[in-house]
Design goal:
Blueprint lengths: L1 H24 L6 E3 L3 H23 L1 H6 L4 H20 L6 E3 L4 H22 L2
Antiparallel strand pairs: 1-2
Helix pairs in contact: 1-2, 1-5, 2-4, 4-5
């Protein structure tokens, strides 16, 4: 049980650092999270969505993933990022967290690709 809790906290920290990096790199495109503790909350939400929702959507869209040779996974990541933004805009209004990705589907794809890359880098360096 202790290892599960440590992995959970480690995943939230890694996601929060990756989101901070994406916000730094894509600040001009409109990617922002405020206040600063919002990175931890959004990081937990990204971890939950990637652990629970993404495997189900990936399994259901396997034919498209095979047809596009894996490129459809980027679309899935962008859609999940849009779903998280929608959740914080329309459902969790009382938390005080403002999470914006930008406008247009291209900003979601770029943000999702950078988030995946930076998340892999933070997991690599924090795991050692």
């Amino acid at each position: 049980m202790r290892w599960f809790f440590q992995d959970f906290i480690f995943g939230i920290i890694a996601n929060a650092l990756a989101l901070l990096g994406v916000a730094y790199l894509l600040g001009d495109m409109g990617f922002s999270i405020t206040p600063i503790w919002g990175y931890v909350v959004i990081g937990a939400m990204v971890g939950f969505v990637n652990a629970v929702v993404k495997p189900i959507i990936t399994l259901l869209s396997l034919p498209l993933i095979f047809l596009t040779m894996g490129l459809f996974l980027a679309v899935i990541n962008g859609m999940l990022l849009f779903a998280i933004e929608y959740l914080f805009e329309n459902i969790l209004l009382n938390t005080g967290i403002v999470f914006t990705v930008g406008s247009g589907w291209l900003s979601y794809l770029i943000a999702a690709a950078l988030l995946s890359l930076l998340n892999s880098i933070t997991h690599f360096f924090l795991a050692k």
